[in-house]
Amino acid sequence: MIAYDKRKIDNGALIDQADTLYKGGFISKDQKKFIEKELPDLKSQSNILVRIGFFLLGCFLYLSICGVITLVGLSSERVFFEICCYIFAVIGFVGIELLAKQDYHNHGLDDAFILGALLNVGAAIAITTEGYEIIIALFVSAASLFMFLRYLHVLSMLVFCFAVSAFLFFGMFEFGDIGKAILPFAAMIFAGIFYFITKKIIDRLAESHYYNGLLLANSFCLVLFYLSCNYLVVRELSAELLGEEVKPGTDIPFAFFFYAFTFVVPVFYLIKALKTKDRIMLWISFLAIAFSIYTIRFYHSVLPVEVALTLGGLVLFAIAYFSIKKLKEKESGLTFKPDRINHSDTLLNAEALVVASTFGIKPEVKPQASPMEFGDGGFSGGGSGGSF
Length: 388
Description:
Keywords: Membrane, Transmembrane, Transmembrane helix. This is DUF2157 domain-containing protein. The protein is mainly alpha-helical. It has a domain of 41 residues. Helices cover 71% and strands 0% of the residues. It has 15 helices and no strands. Helix 3 runs antiparallel to helix 4, helix 3 packs across helix 5 and helix 6 runs antiparallel to helix 7. The longest helix has 26 residues. The protein is flat and about 65 Å long.
């Protein structure tokens, strides 16, 4: 199924590990170069700016090919309009297959052809079905899943997650107002099931080729689960989809559940992340807590903005201070010790700088050397040099 040589994929993973060891100071630069020379890998681009440049170049190439075909097919306008996006999608699939045969992976050129093919698949189905959203989402999700499984394209997994979510949403719209009313609960259940499925697949993954894409899908489920029943999202979607205007003194149905969900889930994410040492879940929990605070302030301005920001800053400072005091002496697990791999001792250097500036500690001044030199017997007597 995978279009690339698996041996070269494994070599790429080993080279990445060697680069990590080099940055951590475990191996020398010559050893790193020797590993890169002895292990042939795929043509990838780790520099994001260079990769964007190649992506733009690939888009220009893709558009040039499609433009030539468009000039040829202009003679039959109606027929060509109905089939042009199918032809452009085929060009994308053929182009990425040729690039894969030449070992281009995460290079930029392959991104242009993969994303272009997915875009044209969606446009082609939209023209054929006259914009039937659920069918468009179905075909785009199938095409993006194929791109991920065959070409190990992580962005295709992100497209798959959005397309499957859109398929669920438009499918619920087919049931009318009842489907729109229960959409938050359906999305919550879907995200929970999808999360445990991806988690189980990751735990049983024999090969690491699909790990990054599955991890992205797993993280997407966490975000979707929280947003599905967030009070602000549910209330605004209810007004948009059902036309329900919340009058003063009233609230949306099950408002207490959505309020509790908005605050309980981020705290649960935070506790779970600290317990399992899951860094991605930890960042998601921080963002969810911030969005929960924004949700309440969006409808209830309890304090002026400047007072709320001041109190929030004091609370964050207290949390940061006591967390540092608690973790700075720990040697394992969650700790404030510098990470040798990531060179994260910048925080410790910053702490020392703050302490020095606060208490007025100045650098040590070297005392001026004495004008009289001692030793070697150079002045009115014998010494270690034996001179007189």
